[in-house]
Amino acid sequence: MNASPAPLPLTVITHEFFPMMGGIATFVEEMATALHKLGHRTEVWAPQASAPVERRFPFAVRRVPLKGTQDLSCQLRMAREMVAYRQQLRRGIVYLPEPGPLLAMTYLQFFRVLKPARLVLTFHGSEVQSFAARPAARMLVGQLIRAADRISTPSQFTRRLLVRHFPAAAEKTVLTPGAVRAHFRSDQPVRGANGRKVVIVTVGRLHPRKGQLHILEALNTLPDSVLRDVEYWVIGRSVRGNYEARLRRRAADSRVPVIFHGNIDHDDLELIYRRSDIFALTSVNHGHSVEGFGLVYLEASASGLPVVGHDVGGVSEAVLHGQTGLLVPPEDRQALAAALEKLISNAPLRRQLGENGVRWARQHTWQDSARTLVEGLDSDARRPSPTLAETLQPA
Question: Which residues contact residue 308 at a Cβ distance below 8 angstroms, ignoring those fewer than 6 apart?
Fold first, then answer.
C-alpha cells in the first residue's frame, strides 16, 4: 500500500503581520498556525518588525527587508524576494493572503522565472473593488486568478463580489471564515466594573469606514434619562487623515462621556471586553472599501457582548440579527439610536444575546478554514502546474 504523500511545504507571503494589528494580520497569523498544525512545513514572509522583541511562533518567520506599506516600492521588493527564492517556492504551495503580495505576483506572471507547485490566493473584500476599478489591475489580477489553484474568501458576500468582477474565480473559490483567536481567553465577564454605568465599546482603526461618528451622533439623540448611565469607550487610532481629530472634537461636546484608549494589545483588549456591556461597530461602505466580514465582531461575541452594527457587506455573516446582536440599515441614525437604547435599557436582552454570541463565535475554527483552503492540493503533487505565463497562451 502506497503511503499518502507528505503535505507540501507552504510559504505564506504577506505585508500584514505582527507587530501590525487588525483583522488581516490576525487572519494571516491564525491561518499560518492552523496550516502548520495540519502538517505543512510553514514559513511566513513578513515585513521587518518594528517591535523591540519578536514574538515566538510555531512556524518559521522570515523577515523581508521592506516596510509593509503595500505601496509600489514594497510590491516590487517583495517580487524581487520571490525571484531570489524561486527554488524554494517551486517546491511547495505559495499562499498570498492579502493584496500587497498578490500585486507583487502579478508583475511576475508574464515570466517563466517562478512556477510554484500550487498557488493559493485570499480576497477579503475591499481590494476586489479596487482592482476592478483600474483597468490594468483588473487585467493583471484576472490573469492571476486564472493561474491560481485555489482561492478563498472569508464570507459569501466577498465571494459574490469577487465572482461578479472576476467570473473566472467561480469554480475555484472556497469559503474560509474567520474564527476566534486561538489564544483568546474566555474568562467570565466583569460586568458592572464601573458601577451602574453601561459601557459601549468600539474596536477598530479610527477611519470613516468604521463609523465611530455614527455611534456618537446616535447616542447624543437619546434622552438624558438613558445617557446618564452610559459611557462610550473607543479603542484604536487613526493612521492618516483628520478623522480622529473630528471624532475627538465631537466627543468634547458630547452628552455621553467618551474615553479614548488608543491602540492596546490583545491581553488588554480582552480585559476591555470583559468590562464592557455592549459592542458597537457601524461600518459603512467608503469608496471602494467595504466590510468583508469582521473578526472583531466574533471576538466581541466570544466575550459575551451583544453587538450593534450596520447591515452592510459581510457583517450579517459575523452577527446574527436578533440572535447575537442588532443590525440596522446604514445611514439610518434613528434605527441605530433605537437599537442602542434598546440594549442600554434591557439588561436581560443584553445577557441573552451575549450568551448566544458565545456559542455562535465558537462554531468555526481556524483549522476548519485551513483544511478547506488546502484540501486536495497535495494530490498528484509531482505533476508540475503550468507556469503563470503559460496560462496566458491560447488553447
Answer: 200, 215, 278, 279, 280, 281, 282, 325, 326, 327, 328, 336, 339, 340, 343
List the domains of the chain with CATH numbers: 10-179+366-392 (3.40.50.2000), 198-361 (3.40.50.2000)
Residue 241 is predicted with a pLDDT of 81
Q: Is the pTM of this model over 0.70?
A: yes
Residue 237 CA to residue 260 CA, distance in Å, equals: 9
How far does the chain reach from its first CA to its final CA, in angstroms?
38
Q: Tell me the C-alpha to C-alpha distance, in Å, between residue 166 and each of 120, 125, 129, 296.
A: 16, 13, 10, 28
H-helix or E-strand spanning residue 106: helix 99-106
258-294 pLDDT tens trace: 999 999 888 889 999 999 999 999 999 877 788 999 9
Half-sphere exposure of 361 (CA within 13 A, CB side): 28
Within the chain, which residues score under 50 in pLDDT?
A: 1, 193, 382-395
Strands (E), the chain: 10-13, 42-47, 60-64, 93-96, 118-122, 150-153, 173-175, 198-203, 230-235, 258-262, 278-281, 307-310, 325-328
| 306, amino acid identity | P
196 burial (CB, 10 Å; 0-12 / 13-18 / 19+) is: exposed
- Phi/psi for 30 (5° steps) reads -70, -40
